[in-house]
Amino acid sequence: AQRNKMVTKALVFAAIVAFAAAAVVPAPVHPEEFNPHPQYEFTYAVQEPMTGDFKSQSETRDGDAVHGRYTVLEPNGMERIVEYTADDVHGFKAVVSHAPAGAAHAA
Q1: pLDDT digit string, tens, across residues 72-84
Q2: Which InterPro entries match (predicted)?
Q3: pTM of the predicted model as reported, rounded to 2 decimal places
Q4: Which of 16, 40, 66, 100 could form a disulfide with 86 if both were Cys (CB 3.0 to 4.6 A apart)?
């Protein structure tokens, strides 16, 4: 009697697991299209005097070449300016400079 109860419980559990597994339907797979010459461009800026958060970034991509620039206001009041390029020949290269806050935008 005890053995029959255990077998029944095991069968009920197996049936529940099988039902739950059968109810899962995988989502259809949509392969992403390959773009042999990707292009994009973006720019943004944050200017929040209450928190002292001042930064900006702009970037463009044309095929395998990326060019960009970002600025960040550092705690000492200087603006860090990073200009960068990246491509499949030279890799990633960045030039970092500093200027008084706002001077980089005045040019």
Answers
A1: 999 899 999 999 9
A2: CHIT_BIND_RR_consensus (IPR031311), Insect_cuticle (IPR000618), Insect_Cuticle_Struc_Prot (IPR051217)
A3: 0.63
A4: 66
